[in-house]
Amino acid sequence: MAIVAITSSPQKNANTEFVVKTIAKSAEENGKEVVYFDINSMANRKGCQACDACKKNGGKCITKDDLAPLIDAVKDSEGVIISSPVYFGEACGQYRLFEDRLYRFFGVAPEDSIAPGKKVAVVTAAGSGGADELADKMCGHLVSFFKFEPVGKIAMITGNDRKYAEKNEEIIAQAKAIGKKF
Question: Domains along the chain?
């Protein structure tokens, strides 16, 4: 089983992507396989359509788009690294599409849902505030709904400096330490 590393920011090569890749590289150096998904680069992505077809066919979503392999990978993973910039105090829309699609795992047989005990690391970045609160909220959803096990979070206030994380040795060290927990 692999670790699923998820970036969602529309800003390429910026803070959340850098930190996710640093965590993932540390996990790889620790012998873990990592699979990467960048939601923003997915051309064909949709949110949950609330059709409830997943409730009738063993948790399988009938929406066939670029998010489908990501959702399947999360189910089959041993852990995930999730990330989002903070937009108006919330996760970006790209991340929300992913999170909404996890609905397929509610109200289905345990073998069709996400197995409890998967590890989760969370990365958020904000220009001026809200990163810590959003990281707790994102992690809280996976912990309360699916019994994920938190292994760390990095919540950055960047002052809108897209290279803030790359210049911050403390964040880099923290990311490497989190990667070793997978």
Answer: 3-179 (3.40.50.360)
